[in-house]
Amino acid sequence: MNWMREGITRRDLLKVGTAAGLGLALPGSLWRPATAAEKKTLIFTGWVYEPELVRQNLDRFEKIYPDYKVDYTPTDTRLYREKLIAMFQAGTPLDALYVRDDYFSGWVEAEYLQPIDGMPGLKDLDRDMFDFNLDAMTHKGKRYGIPYYADYMVFLHNKKMLADAGFAAPPKTLDELRKQAEAIKKKKLADYPLLTAFGTTAGFFFDWWGFVYGSSGTLFDKEWAPTFPDKDKTAQSVLEWLVAAIHDWKIMDIKIVEMVLENVGTKEAFAQGQAAFVSQFKYNTEWLNNPKFSKVAGQAKPTAYPSLSAGQKGTMGWTRQYCITANSKRKDDAWKLISYLGGKDEKGQYYTAKNWYLQRGLGFAYKPLWQDKDIIEATNKWGDAKVFSEMALAAKARENIKAPWFSEWDSFNQARLQEALLKKVKPRDALAASAKKAADLRKEWKG
Amino acid sequence: MGDGQVSLATSGMGGAEARRKPGSAALSEPSLAFLLNAPAVCVILLLVAYPITYSFYLSLHRWNLKRPRIFSFIWLGNYVHILGSTEFWAALKVTAIFAFLSVAGILVLGTGMALILNEGFRGRGLVRSLVLVPWAIPPVVNGLMWQWILNSKAGILNGLLVAVGAIQEYRAWFLDSATAILMLVVAHVWNNVPFAVIVLLAALQTIPTELYDAAQVDRAGSWQRFRHVTLPWLIHPILIIMILQTMTAFRVFDLVYVLTGGGPGDATTVIALLTFRTAFDYLDIGRGNAYAYIIALITLSLAAIYLKALYARGEIRV
Q1: How far apart, in Å, are the Cα atoms of A3 and each of A8, A17, A121, A239, B41?
Q2: In chain A, whose CA is at the least distance from the CA of B276?
């Protein structure tokens, strides 16, 4: 043989090695199970909220669908939007992600997300959703998201503190709220019985919307034209009430102008027993009634917002959703993931939505879940299923949330409201300036 | 051995020429320098010049990511809009006040600390090291730290002031416009003063002791020695500190974002925060870039004014 005569050259060795490798590898692949490298990998991100629970949900998904592997990276909550915009602009590979309703329409317009119309099972899910949630995930007639969670603002009272002050029932109107708060203050049960959060935070100021909607008020019409301060006087009356609550009746601390809702905010202050009333995210009701975290556990009871007149009702709701990125090449696979996370599992159950609610009290967008025995039982341990389900029906999204100028107006509006609360300008002037800004932006954007 | 052979053996360049292949073109010394620097120049062009030029290009366009398909050239439209907006002038005023107070604070405190650290005392080395600590803290962390210090319900500053009887009850430091800016300045000065201390301390150590001896012979007091001996020697480093710190103060963002978010109202909204909001909150990339250029132009102009004012007086020779 030639090689015996001339010896083995480096080229011969490579040829033999490659042939041997292929020979071993090819038959093997016919019978071996799918390895990690052969699985379909989906890249997924969301802001940091209970990443361990998210991972547990994803592990369950991978177990149900063994062909998939989910590469999940939580992204810093505070700079989530900015980081994601940078990633979109840079074309960073990403299949699915969390999206908030205040920048949802902007991201659709920026072509960061792709529609999910016609995906299998979508119509069934849509049928079960509350209208405002469904609307929040729809832009210009196209559907984009599946709910991660959906919630609304609630008004909580400390039942024991109210009882100590001689009140058997929580206030139904703002006038009753004032009387109860003044009595609590007089009895020195709390220095400032009412807690709200009006510190500058992009996209928030939920208490403002909660109080206005709680009095059946509107801030914008369907064309995003401002209805305040004249067409609908609710906003002005509510703001005047809040200003008087701080400066005249002293039932609310001026420091609310630098307070936020949670993470060293009104939630923690209420949990310490510092106040009798607080406006809060509904999902925090569970936390506030958990003795591990709260000194008022068992006493934090939810009600509808006290209103200007009896019988008015409403609250502000929001929808956080799972969406598929426009640059995802695996739409069908990404749909499988988000429809599992935000919809039904392989048994046709709203597994993750129910799990989030039972584990952390995060709200859901599906009406049938309010009939679920486990949910009702769990809710009544720390809240009130009847109150919650009624409020879910009365909740509505911010009317101008999809306007391209929402963030710019929101930032301006927060500053004006703070000035009014600090009594630097009159409530009407602050609202008039805010309405003018909205009108100017509407004109600039032609709608 | 002839002369030619000697020169080849003793000169490196001659050696290189000797090894050069026949027929290859000789590179002149400047050409070789350009060639060797070319990779670095390319990197700088790619990473610095291109983004700066592209940013300027974007600033001349209407481009908001909420309507990405609308991308039109509008000349100086974004700049005209910004200069015509009340938000911009309000933010500029806040930024100017913040910059003035910060630079003044850093200079006064930095000079005082540098003079103390230039004296001999026990533990001077340790104090010199400790002074540098705040400089090592990133602005965001600095902001978060001061958020706790100034917390209206549990802040250590409130605790301290109540303990010594300076105030009766805990105060909210960010409700009033003046105190909000002042607290931002305090946090910024604390973070940046070590830089001034290092630069000024280095300058102080170069002043010849003979000058102080001569001044003492002339019966100059401590203030006169500082005014007529120390200060003239510090003018150059002070100029550097002023330029750099003014630029830093005009670009301040992290601290304001974390501590006040621009509030109460618009009381602490600085230009960099407005730039950030415009670009990342409102997604107006065209206008956001115009804001960035306006900040750059302002800081550049201020640097030019400093240089002209101080160099033209002949107090500095470089």
Answers
A1: 6, 15, 65, 95, 54
A2: A82
Span of A53-57, A422-426, B122-126, B310-314 with lowest mean pLDDT: B310-314
Locate the chain B residue with the closest alpha carbon to A418: B265
- A76 C-beta neighbours (distance < 10 Å), count: 10
How high is the mean pLDDT of chain A? 90
Q: What is the pLDDT of residues B50-64, one digit of tens each?
A: 999 999 999 999 998
* Residues B152/B170, Cβ–Cβ less than 8 Å: yes
Q: What is the ipTM of this complex?
A: 0.78
Cα–Cα nearest to A327, from A119, A103, A88? A88
Nearest to B262 by CA among B89, B91, B85: B91
**Cβ distance B82 to B297 under 8 Å?**
no
d(CA B189, CA B196): 10
Burial of A346 (0-12, 13-18, 19+ CB in 10 A): exposed
- The backbone torsions φ and ψ at residue B119, rounded to the nearest 5 degrees and listed phi first, read -80, 160
Strands A315-324, A395-396: pairing is: parallel
What's the rounded mean pLDDT across residues B106-111? 97
The CA–CA distances, whole Å, from B20 to B1, B6, B15, B17 equal 22, 18, 9, 5
Instruction: Please indicate whether, in this complex, the C-beta atoms of A422 and B265 are within 8 angstroms of each other.
Output: yes
Q: Is the pLDDT of residue A35 over 90?
A: no
Strands A194-195 and A277-281: parallel
- Yes or no: say if B233 and B161 are a contact pair by the CB < 8 Å rule: no
H or E segment and range at residue A205: none
Q: Is the preceding peptide bond at A115 cis, omega within 30 degrees of 0?
A: no
A315 phi/psi in degrees, rounded to 5:
-160, 170
**Token duo for residue A29:** 């692949």
At residue B244's C-alpha, the angle toward residues B238 and B247, to 5°, is: 135
Residues of B in contact with A414 (CB under 8 A): 263
What's the whole-number mean pLDDT along residues A38-49? 93
- Answer whether A225's CB lies under 8 Å from A441's CB: no
Whether B265 contacts chain A with CB within 8 A: yes
What was the pLDDT predicted at A37?
56
Long-range pairs, A440-446, Cβ under 8 A, ≥24: A441/A403, A441/A405, A441/A408, A441/A409, A442/A224, A442/A225, A442/A403, A442/A405, A444/A405, A445/A403, A445/A404, A445/A405
Burial readout B124-156 (b: 16 or more C-beta within 10 A, e: otherwise): eeeeeeebeebeeeebeebbbbbbebbbbeebe
In chain A, % of residues over pLDDT 90: 81
**A422·B65 Cβ contact <8 A:** no
How many CB atoms lie under 10 A from the CB of residue B33? 11
> What rounded mean pLDDT belongs to chain B?
88
Residues in A closer than 8 angstroms to B68, CB to CB, are 109-111
**Sign of the C-alpha dihedral computed for residues B209, B215, B216 and B218 taken in this order:** positive
Q: Chain A closest CA to B66's CA: distance in Å? A: 5
* All residues at 6 or more sequence positions from B250 whose CB lies less than 8 Å from its CB, including other chains: B95, B99, B271, B272, B295, B298, B299, B302
The CA angle B267-B271-B276, to the nearest 5 degrees, is 105
Q: With CB atoms and an 8 Å threshold, state whether B265 touches A415.
A: yes
Contacts of A199 in chain B (CB under 8 A): 261, 263
